Amino acid sequence: MKILVIGGGKGTGKDVVDYFAPNSKNVSLSTGYNIRNPNRRREIAEMSLEYEAVLNHAYCGEMSQYMMLRQLYNHWKDADHEGYIFHTGTYSTYSINWDPDSNYTDMKKASDELLKKMSKKCENNKHKFRCTNLRPAMLDTPKSRLKPHWEGTGVTGEDFAKIIEFLFNNVTDGLCVPEIVLSQKHDPL
Fold first, then answer.
1. Is domain 3-182 classified as CATH 3.40.50.720?
2. 6 φ/ψ angles, rounded to the nearest 5 degrees
3. What's the chain's Rg over C-alpha atoms?
4. Comparing C-alpha atoms, which of 91, 84, 42 is closest to residue 176?
5. pTM surpassing 0.85?
6. Domain segments of the chain: what residues?
7. How far apart are CA 180 and CA 15, in angstroms?
8. Is 113 or 92 the better-scoring residue by pLDDT?
9. What does the pLDDT look like over 15-64, one tens digit per residue?
10. What is the three-class DSSP state of 5?
């Protein structure tokens, strides 16, 4: 599988790029691709047509991840592209975020809704490609380990890559997997 990882410069994204090397490419801030820029999103979406799979992993605190997903969808739909779009969502959208100053879950919920619509179109055989929203409960990254709610374990980049590999290689063309929740076992606090 040849995969483009949007946001593969560090953490989980980099782990996915490394796992699939040399058949992977990172596009991120570190390579000059800022998904906040509409022109860069368009360039990335055009580039993605050269790949069998894409992971939309970059998150920058704005609606940019959602807009990148929308751009990917439009390009793949218009090109009648075959392949697999993976998106990094979050388990946190299953619950209410009680912090009115936090937009994280609000922005991720917008992507959840778009993925549901995309997946329904795939289920109805409107597109040749498939898509899955990968929803980790907690990622195991240096940044995550500093969070106050870190419980000592999380989903690794290798876990992420293996799920992508499994879905791409083993799920039959007639089956759609709209979303998967990923969570590591841990001892309760």
1. yes
2. -85, 110
3. 16
4. 84
5. yes
6. 3-182
7. 19
8. 113
9. 999 999 999 999 999 999 999 999 999 999 999 999 999 999 987 778 89
10. strand
